[in-house]
Design brief:
single chain, alpha/beta, Rossmann fold, 6 helices
Length: about 180
């Protein structure tokens, strides 16, 4: 699975990251075309411009994540809710990316994908295992249950991410005025 940078209709630069097979491409194409696109593991990266109406690679690729998150308005981090064996690895990568100086304060939407499956972790378990409470105080985050195949939860998650981005932009504008 590649990592998926894209821009929204209000010209936000959003980056979708996560371990391979977490469902990043499925999330992207559900948002892009509002349909399920049967995917194969992505080699490299996908880039798409998508319009969303709001209000109603493999390990060796991971060092490249940094170049994709530069200047990001928001990060969508997709986690496979069923893959409890790799949640520690997902946690490590999530914390690594949010600690980068250029990502300080960038809002993170954590998509708990595959919540439709019977053996998926609960949101409380995921929040604890991903140590979301230990993310920097400067990093706003929201954990969103989702099923990317049918698109459930994605719109709500995007609306939360949009609200966090707008709040951050307002704060940054106020800080500039004070200087």
């Amino acid at each position: 699975d590649g990592n998926v940078p894209f821009s929204c209709s209000q010209s936000f630069h959003i980056v979708i990251l996560g371990l391979d097979c977490a469902g990043k491409t499925t999330v992207l194409y559900r948002l892009r075309f509002n349909e399920f696109v049967n995917t194969v593991p992505t080699k490299g990266f996908n880039a798409e411009k998508i319009k969303v109406s709001l209000g109603s690679k493999r390990q060796k690729l991971r060092p490249l994540w940094r170049s994709y998150t530069r200047c990001a308005d928001g990060i969508i981090f997709v986690v496979d809710s069923v893959d409890s064996e790799r949640i520690e690895e997902a946690k490590t990568e999530l914390h690594k990316i949010t600690r980068l100086a250029e990502n300080q304060g960038v809002p993170v939407l954590v998509v708990a994908n595959k919540q439709d499956l019977r053996n998926s972790l609960t949101l409380a378990e995921m929040e604890s295992m991903l140590a979301l409470g230990e993310l920097s105080m400067a990093t706003p985050w929201h954990l969103q249950p989702a099923c990317a195949i049918i698109g459930e939860g994605l719109q709500e998650g995007l609306e939360k991410l949009h609200a966090m981005i707008m709040k951050r932009r307002k704060t940054l504008r106020q800080q500039k005025k004070k200087r």
